[in-house]
Amino acid sequence: MKLHQLKYLVAIVENNFNITTAAEKIYTSQPGISKQLRLLEDELDLKIFERSGKQLIGLTALGEDVVKHARRALQEVENIKRIAQDKNKVESGSFSLATTQTQAKYVLPEVFKRFHARFPNLQIDLQHGSAEQMSDLLDKKQIDFAIASDNTNLSPDVIKIPCYHWDRVIVFPQDHPLGDLTKPTIEDIAKYPIITYKKPAVGESSLVKAMKAKGLQPNIVFTARDADVIKTYVRNGLGIGIIASMAFNPRTDQDLIGFSAKNILPRCTTWIAFNKNLLLRRYMYSFIELFAPHITREWLNGYVNKEIPVDGGIISQGEEQSLPMHRIGNA
């Protein structure tokens, strides 16, 4: 068994069992990959792939186990390289992170500015996506970190660390009737069409849950992942918007009124996640320090190694309640 055979195996799985596409992605030939797969199956004396004629259509039950261990083996090889790079203070290459539009635009610019000043030779690859897409990228180790606020359950191989809380803001035009109220209530909000973030893939959003708890049915007429898109449609009279507090700026959004929903809707929690099989390099610890200064390297290592009590794989409820609130420029 050779490492390049495991690399080919994983590449095929990550390219929907298309050998030609996998070969292009890893800069080798389709016949070469096919030959190495046959050799691997012969050596292991087991069938890794389900086939339809010459077409690969999936993994056998044993094949799934083989791929899982192949990924771990390749990651351990990468981790050995990371140890050497940290020892030799090699701080070049690529740092990849997936996040939401709100985090990318309103939270991370200052963090990355300071991060880049510390590690100018690192290329930063910032991707956008849903929490489900980020989870898939983490499982495949195609990104270093993911940052989001969704309540998505991640795989057992992913460590999810809550970093800070934030509240939502209700936004509406200056001439909207809500502007005449001193303290709008959840009942007041429910009277109007709502524009807000796309609902999670599984379950209901906390907005919907909060309204249903009061016997209300929200009239959500438009959803988007982008807070700026939501504000655009609020400006066009489609409804009132509900967005993250960091996405509303009274100076640049002067045509809108922003009312804090902290006493109306439950708080949200932003988390950072990474694959537990990934060896964290020095610059990764530095990024976490810049993003969430209250999370020290010592605390993080204790958390990863289960030396700090956790509840269901997530930080204990007592500690989560003590998380700081997000402040612009203070991430």
TrEMBL record:
Gene3D superfamilies: Periplasmic binding protein-like II, Winged helix-like DNA-binding domain superfamily/Winged helix DNA-binding domain
Keyword flag Kinase: no
UniProt cross-references to Pfam families, sorted A to Z: HTH_1, LysR_substrate
Entry keyword rRNA processing: no
Listed InterPro entries: CysB_PBP2 (IPR037423), LysR_HTH_N (IPR000847), LysR_subst-bd (IPR005119), WH-like_DNA-bd_sf (IPR036388), WH_DNA-bd_sf (IPR036390)
Sorted UniProt keywords: DNA-binding, Transcription, Transcription regulation
Signal peptide region: none
A GO MF term: transcription cis-regulatory region binding
Family: Belongs to the LysR transcriptional regulatory family.
Protein name from the UniProt record: LysR family transcriptional regulator
Species the sequence originates in: Aliikangiella coralliicola
